[in-house]
Amino acid sequence: MIYHNIGILAHVDSGKTTLTEQLLYLTGAIRSAGSVDEGTTATDSLSVEKQRGISVRSATASAVWNGVTFNIIDTPGHVDFAGEVERALCALDYAVVVVSAVEGVRAHTENIIKSLDTAKIPRIVFINKTDRAGSDIRTVINELKSVSDHSFLLLSDIENEGDDTVSVKTLDGNDFCERSTEVLADICDEAAEAYLNEELLTADRAMELIRNETAACRLTVVLCGSAKKGVGVRELADMLTKIMPSSQRRATDELCGIIFKIEHDKTLGKVSHVRLFGGEIKNRDEVEIIIPDKKVITDDDVVQTEEENSVKEKVSQIKKFVGAKYSDSGLVQGGDIAALCGLPSAKTGHFIGSVSLSESARLVNPFLRVRVRPTDNDPQKIPQLAEALFRLSDEEPYMDAKWENGQKEITINTTGKIQLEVLSNLLRERYSLSADFSPPTVIYKETPSTKGLARASYTMPKPCWAVVEFMFEPMPRGYGVSYHGRLPSNQCFYRYQSHIRTSFNSCLEQGLYGWEVTDFRCTLVGGEHHTIHTHPLDFFVCTPMAFMNGLSSLGSTVLEPLLKVRVTAPSDLSGKVLSEIVRTGGDYDAPVIHSQNVTLEAIVPVATSMELPTRLAVLSSGKAVLSQSFYGYRECRDGLEHKTERIGVNPLDRSKWILWARGAYQS
After folding, report:
1. Which of the residues 39, 201, 393, 659 could staple to 665 if both were Cys, CB 3.0 to 4.6 A apart?
2. pTM value?
3. Which fold has domain 446-554+646-661?
4. Do the beta carbons of residue 81 and residue 12 sit within 8 Å?
5. Residue-wise DSSP of 64-128
């Protein structure tokens, strides 16, 4: 069996769900093509998706075309749900990127393409909505070239662009050979030689080179059409089977798979969506679920991982997709996608059987946090609400619900208002719970201010003995965190050094001001145990004290999140748009004037720009078009102290921390 695991990716309203529907209809997987506007599509199953006409969860549907099984993953296009796209990337053989011929390459599309480049995932571009007035294929291709270093090969011949009577066909014969030779000449020596000698590649050889260069992520084929009218859909399906790589590209000989999505079903319980790279799984098989640990960089810069944590659990049922509906299968083989039931410990990102070097890239960074409480403020409902949010965090890990028994509020991370609306809907429909959300606050981060030592000694009250000493070194923005250093075993047993490293990773969640700590290099430079007095858990008590002592003595710099915004507005509004950017404290590039419009790009702080979309809409009477994406972090410039409430006991309160860590104190 030949499998193609395909991700349909796009900015919101580009028509990717409609394209998915047309592919399913073309292949006979569904009897009629549904409508996004009417809420009748096969892959939009949640009530909020039907009501709003947007996808908020990725959905998988299967179809067969020309002897190839397509597992199509339709992903959300709204940036609030970019986490769904990010998790789908690890399951793909390739992507179909849908771009509107009218709106062009928008901010989220640009992020998707760059993430595909980073993860080295092949892709094909489908330029949609060519039936609409304002369609401009050439401009779209130029925009694609500006965001990716791929060569782009347009293989569609289009007639009546921008009109209801639009039609397309795939280039063939001499036209195909001529255009293929010309584009391939930029990336392929054989094609370059033919082009310089004024010769053409044969059709078969050109197709073979297109397949090779596409799989090598140097070439992107571009096709055109109108998903709403079904124009160009058959040509797309044919081209997918001819040039795009199958699941063999990532095949393994051993049992290996990755869980890319978690759902909770009232009847089936937890459902784990798995892309299997190799081996096979049957009903009632016991499989090993592996939790990948964080990577650690050693002194000689060799990347290693900590000892893998794993658990064995039995698969109770295997569900496959017929169209977009489940059916009992009983078996899933390497290269295929299926839903496994009966794995209570499974989480998104866990592996099945063995660890694979899956392709992934970061698309989303939640930069807003809200507090959640029952609508009626009934404290008896808080544990139930927390449990529901923990379950939903399995499905959307970036939500990261946090609560400790006794607290009156639960905190979650979010990427926007639409995500909160969806969450409220899920709580009500699935758990019969009603919740209120506080206004969002910005998620800051922090980093050590200077280079220096972080040390703690835990030798009282006996029996205990643990000494930990780190060297903290600030690094550039975007570096993340690396951990180095290894002490002689007679100074500190290796198993205790493993405890230190594990505890250090946990410490990163809350720094001096309560924010996640990032952008620094940590080196274990000292430590000791006692052969009689050291208890195995002593280093889990000592390491957080050393960590916080270091931040306290070295200082901690708070970092604020930034957005990259692009505003297109009538040129006579350029002064007002610039004033709004300046008001936020953003940094902007020189405006670019084209036709009657002006385009402005800027980097703005999240904290001061949350009302920017509304303000721009008002001052431009809705004529300004704003797109925005996460950019990164920088040191705060507002001069204010940004703190957040700490969850649990602060290790700087030494006596209380020791009692709490030893289970003798309740916070």
Report:
1. 659
2. 0.80
3. Ribosomal Protein S5; domain 2 (3.30.230)
4. no
5. EETTEEEEEEE---SGGGHHHHHHHHTT-SEEEEEEETTTBS-HHHHHHHHHHHHHT--EEEEEE
